[in-house]
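Is this the right way to post structure tokens for a design question? Let me know if I should format differently. Anyway, here goes:
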């Protein structure tokens, strides 16, 4: 599967500015084959605590629907809906095939006072890959991924992860790949909002914990190719998941 990660500086609370930014970034990949296009958390607004500025609009949904149709690929983007911090995934025909609401709210920033947590997690099916979606702070909670690990090919983490905790981001992404023996895609933003700086560091890590894509701190669309057979091969060579203690 060919994945394209979109890393960019999100204009604060301003979908009107962010949509042309995204279109400009995507211009170089027009006409090339991409299976799945993935964006950071709160793709068009940034991680704002002003719920009046973040609620997803019909025009926002239409924007990403048309991206999926025009690029003939799956598209995952982040937005707030009904006061939940969500990821939406479109099929190449523009149909919503997945909606995940962030389960762990970031109390350090007061997210739980403004937004509501999601209540469950259902894997996405893209081509023949089973994908577990998650949002930013979810990454810190390893148990979120463990029960599904044996059937997981890819963990997606869409984030607005601060530069101040950059080492945590890098370490936790690799840890999730190693312990679950699957690919991990971490999609982060760059730039600044009124309070926080972001270093980017969007990455793709393979099931053995090796970095196969590192986007650094530049804006752009970055590609990686995922091989479903690799996870199977690594799990057969190192059957660590089988030794995990099961819940009683």
């Amino acid at each position: 599967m060919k994945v394209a990660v979109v890393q960019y500086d999100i204009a604060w609370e301003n979908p009107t500015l962010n949509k042309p930014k995204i279109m400009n970034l995507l211009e170089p990949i027009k006409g090339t084959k991409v299976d799945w296009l993935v964006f950071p958390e709160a793709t068009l607004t940034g991680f704002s605590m002003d719920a009046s500025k973040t609620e997803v609009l019909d025009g926002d949904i239409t924007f990403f629907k048309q991206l999926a149709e025009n690029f003939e690929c799956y598209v995952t983007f982040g937005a707030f809906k009904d006061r939940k911090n969500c990821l939406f995934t479109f099929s190449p025909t523009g149909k919503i095939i997945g909606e995940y609401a962030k389960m762990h709210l970031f109390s350090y920033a007061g997210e739980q006072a403004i937004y509501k947590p999601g209540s469950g997690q259902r894997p996405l099916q893209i081509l023949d890959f089973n994908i577990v979606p998650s949002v930013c702070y979810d990454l810190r909670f390893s148990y979120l991924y463990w029960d599904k690990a044996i059937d997981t090919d890819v963990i997606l983490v869409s984030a607005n992860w601060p530069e101040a905790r950059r080492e945590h981001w890098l370490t936790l992404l690799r840890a999730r790949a190693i312990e679950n023996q699957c690919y991990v895609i971490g999609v982060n933003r760059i730039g600044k909002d009124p309070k926080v700086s972001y270093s980017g560091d969007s990455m793709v890590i393979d099931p053995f914990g090796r970095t196969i894509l590192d986007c650094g701190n530049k804006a752009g669309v970055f590609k990686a190719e995922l091989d479903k057979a690799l996870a199977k091969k690594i799990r057969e060579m190192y059957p660590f998941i089988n030794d995990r203690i099961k819940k009683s």
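Format looks fine. Someone answered above. Worth noting: The radius of gyration is 17 Å. The domain at 2-243 is CATH 3.60.110.10 (Nitrilase/N-carbamoyl-D-aminoacid amidohydrolase).
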